[in-house]
Amino acid sequence: MSMAGNLRKVTHLSGVGGLRKVARLARRRPRVDLSHPARSPLGSSVVNCVTYRDGVRVPGGSDLVDAVERVRKKGDGFVWLGLHEPTDQEFAGIAELFDLHPLAVEDAVEAHQRPKLERYGETLFAVFKTVCYVEHEELTATSEVVNTGEIMVFVGEDFVITVRHGMHGSLGPLREGLEADPQQLAKGPAAVLHAIADHVVDDYLLVTDSVQADIDQVEMDVFAENGARADPGRIYQLKRELLELKRAVVPLGRPIEDLATRPIRVVDPEIQAYFRDVLDHLMRAKEQIASFDELLNSILQAHLAQVTVAQNEDMRKITAWAAVIAVPTMVCGVYGMNFDYMPELHWSFGYPLVIGVMTVACLALYRGFRRSGWL
After folding, report:
1. What average pLDDT does this structure show over 199-228?
2. Which pLDDT tens digit goes with each residue over 230-289?
3. Which residue, among 205, 235, 245, 353, has the nearest Cα to 303 in the 3D structure?
4. At residue 189, does pLDDT exceed 60?
5. Half-sphere exposure (CA, 13 Å, Cβ side) for 282?
């Protein structure tokens, strides 16, 4: 029986007797080895299920119930179960097998949670917001810059359960990196929790570096020669995307600090030193985001000031041209009143003289406005 099928059975059975019945059913049929980074071929939410002992991966594709029973019987090693967007039905049996708290299970299934760290008895529950940078040829007022997902982690003395939401943040490369370092992996489930936290925070730094390139481009456009004509929607879009990144990074500070400083049973003191390094990187990401926010505010204010200056310049030009046009308008208005007795009305050179006076007056006004910078 495949592991995916086994999990479906676990979903509908309760109690130790029901779980052992699943195990007996699993022994009667051929099993599908799901110990690979790909998604289950049977459509289950199971991505991977591996047993580790002394930092080394135990070969074979055993089912979940047997793996847990062997680990607990020998009192050595741990099981790492990876899931991707499981449903309530798929996760119900797993929650019962590992005695997970209902509130944590609800958070893991529903997603859209704030980064946090909670303890339920002997189990540690952590929520991480994953981020990735969305590549785009040109930043527009509707461009998506930052895409977010979530990773929930249940950590016990002999198990790690990772629940991933979103289309990015795969833990396959992370698992391979840990397996290449058996000495670190031998430190138990807390080593996996640290690796996930370090992986997530490193992605924060990568995304902030990419966002900085967009901010630099917007800054160059705003302070260019025609910066007042730049689209302010791009600045607002960057601020919105930066807010999304801020929601992922800033709340994680307290959980990482707790993992680095507070005594937690499932976290070995030796691992806490590694969490202090993660905390340092997280603080760097928070500082970058804070500086980006301030810089975008300054860019936006500078752009609004440029727009105001440009509008004032336009108004001065309009006023200057209106003054120039007012001279011939006034003269034509006076001579268009059809009076019989007006100066030079019947003089043969009256018309050229009036045209000449209007031309000279307009040129004088134009030259004056040019010297003052209004035109």
Report:
1. 87
2. 777 888 888 888 999 999 999 999 999 999 988 888 888 888 889 999 999 999 999 999
3. 235
4. yes
5. 27
Cα 283–chain centre separation:
17
Q: Note every long-range contact of 316-322, with CB atoms under 8 Å and residues 24 or more positions apart, other chains counting.
A: 316/374, 317/374, 317/375, 319/374, 320/365, 320/369, 320/374, 320/375, 321/375
Q: Which of 48, 53, 95 is nearest to 70 (CA)?
A: 53
Sign of CA dihedral 175, 177, 182, 186: negative
Contact 234, 144 (CB under 8 A): no
Burial class of residue 99 (count of CB atoms within 10 Å of its CB; 0-12, 13-18, 19+): exposed
Closest to 238 (Cα-Cα) out of 132, 140, 129? 140
Residue 339 has pLDDT above 90, yes or no: no
Specify whether the CB–CB gap between 26 and 65 falls below 8 A. Answer: yes
Rounded to the nearest angstrom, the gap between the alpha carbon of residue 362 and the centroid of all alpha carbons in its chain is 60
